[in-house]
């Protein structure tokens, strides 16, 4: 059952809470090659509502009025509340490298023995707090696993097969909303391709206020180009704090680009991530050396976490 909680959501003051950054989560997977992922059953429904607050979650049918006693789907603060509670429950195990993202718990380790040890501790803690798992969605001791939309393994990070298929199957946009949906889908994986922002800029222009929608041949070509590059994207290696690192940048009047590279043990330099940003109308008028300098600044801002480390 699903109820319309918009009237309640409009009266809620959002909590100040910072979800884990996806890049930070992925960076913690360096050196890990055994993965277990646990899925909590009916996630939000495992959070009890205080008895004095159930009245705010009331709804009526033709037979009677009811009140939710557990957090329902559709409540705007549910993801934040769930993440906070799960963090508090498992915070003592974060030192073992477990990763939490809403109702997903990832246990990445270097060996099977380590994985089983941490798994036992996690299961014991979940049982103590009466949290239940959806065993059909749990994966144990895998060499490769999907996490946050990516496939991760000891070899690195790739796009998940279901997202690759979603991009392949995406039809040519006929409306502004369809262009927006395509850009949301592809932008999530922009770290995989060079100059994404520059290539996507003409499509993004179609979504601007008062812009005339004309999905011409150039837009069709760009739409297909992004599809091709994303569905054949390279494996990105996971950042290694001990490896030699280089940052390559480039710039033009259309945008800025960068690639973070690291020297691999048994191979040449390999990509960690790509970065790109389209130029503003003001930046387009900069001299070439100013654009090149600004590209360095923007790239360092994007990858500053690695250089500070």
UniProtKB/TrEMBL annotation:
Highest taxon, organism lineage: Eukaryota
EC number of this enzyme: 2.7.7.49
Molecular function per GO: endonuclease activity; RNA-directed DNA polymerase activity
Protein name: RNA-directed DNA polymerase
UniProt source species: Lasius niger (Black garden ant)
Primary enzyme class: transferase
InterPro entries cross-referenced by the UniProt entry: DNA/RNA_pol_sf, Retrovirus_Pol_polyprotein, Rev_trsase/Diguanyl_cyclase, RT_dom, RT_RNaseH_2
Record keywords, A-Z: Endonuclease, Hydrolase, Multifunctional enzyme, Nuclease, Nucleotidyltransferase, RNA-directed DNA polymerase, Transferase
Domain Reverse transcriptase: 1-152
Pfam families, per the entry: RT_RNaseH_2, RVT_1
């Amino acid at each position: 059952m699903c109820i319309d909680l918009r009237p309640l959501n409009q009266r809620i003051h959002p909590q100040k809470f910072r979800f884990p950054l996806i890049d930070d989560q992925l960076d913690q997977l360096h050196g890990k090659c055994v993965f277990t992922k646990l899925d909590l059953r009916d996630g939000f429904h495992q959070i009890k509502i205080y008895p004095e607050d159930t009245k705010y979650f009331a709804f009526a049918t033709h037979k009677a009025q009811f009140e939710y006693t557990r957090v329902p789907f559709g409540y705007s603060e549910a993801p934040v509340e769930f993440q906070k509670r799960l963090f508090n429950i498992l915070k003592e195990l974060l030192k073992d490298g477990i990763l939490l993202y809403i109702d997903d718990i990832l246990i990445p380790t270097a060996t099977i023995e380590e994985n089983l040890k941490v798994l036992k501790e996690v299961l014991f803690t979940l049982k103590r707090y009466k949290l239940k798992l959806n065993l059909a969605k749990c994966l144990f001791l895998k060499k490769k696993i999907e996490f946050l939309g990516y496939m991760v393994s000891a070899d690195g990070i790739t796009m998940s097969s279901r997202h690759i298929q979603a991009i392949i199957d995406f039809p040519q946009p006929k409306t502004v909303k369809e262009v927006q949906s395509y850009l949301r889908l592809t932008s999530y994986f922009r770290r995989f391709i060079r100059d994404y922002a520059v290539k996507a800029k003409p499509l993004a222009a179609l979504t601007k206020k008062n812009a005339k929608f004309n999905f011409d041949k150039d837009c069709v070509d760009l739409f297909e180009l992004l599809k091709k590059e994303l569905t054949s994207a390279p494996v990105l290696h996971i950042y290694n704090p001990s490896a030699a690192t280089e940052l390559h940048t480039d710039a033009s009047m259309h945008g800025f680009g960068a690639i973070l590279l690291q020297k691999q043990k048994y191979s040449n330099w390999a990509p960690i991530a790509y970065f790109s940003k389209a130029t503003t109308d003001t930046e387009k008028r900069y001299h070439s050396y100013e654009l090149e300098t600004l590209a360095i600044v923007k790239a360092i801002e994007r990858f500053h976490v690695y250089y500070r480390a």
